[in-house]
Amino acid sequence: MRTLFSIFLTLAPLASACSGDRLPPVFLSHFYVTLDQASYDALRSSPELAALSKVAETHVAAGSRKWTGFYIYGRQTYMEFFGAVAAPEGMRLGDAGLGLAVEEVAGVGTIASRLRTVFGGRVKVEPAHRTTAAGVIPWFTAASVENPKVEGLNTWFMETDPGYLAAMHPGSRIERPLGREEDLAWRFIPDRPLDNVVGLTAALNSSDMAQLAAELELAGWAVRRGSGGFVAVGPDAKITVVVAGARAGLQQAELRLRH
User: Fold this and answer.
1) 1 occurs within a structural domain
2) Domain membership flag for residue 110
3) How many folded domains does the chain comprise?
4) Contacts (Cβ under 8 Å, ≥6 apart) of 53
5) What pTM, to 2 d.p., does this model score?
6) Which has more pLDDT, 1 or 93?
């Protein structure tokens, strides 16, 4: 299987860090990678991954967009993979994305306001809807910095709609409708080893690197710049960025195990 990145496993927890008391905490939600079809098929049929956590191939409809993805679920975070045959429209082999979440009402608006202090009108705030058997329901609101020339890694900040989980799970008791852990509770399997994704390494060109560092810093993450890259630490997650060589994108993921 020709993988685009490596996965490392650890039993050691990461310390949380979040600067800026007036900001809502910004958490790692998930990442995606578009794989060649052979790699995607190998992941989908892997018994080792099935033993690691809950996995599922899911068909998603969101407005006019439809896709099929392979999902690996943790307690608060998850991994999303697309194969070249059924990837979302416009995605290319190797494309990757980073989803960051706020769990407070109006939190994404606060983040968007912070982003506008640096990126101005390039900051876009858009709602997303999901099509289900019961009809179209509000899903989340996303804030992102528009950059048509981005290579290797798209990033956005998201806030789940307060009524989304109730609409997806009618009659269920919803205690934290904006919470990542609440959202994944229906898919997470506690007696399997995977807990969470706690680290990512990406290779980016200089302009994309500068933009991501600024976005994370504005969102309250502690960013330490060095020669050739940076390390950003947020609540229970760390993102390391290095200079891209022949190929930009996500390179590694670090997973924390429960046992």
Assistant:
1) no
2) yes
3) 1
4) 72, 73, 74, 188, 189, 192, 193, 194
5) 0.91
6) 93
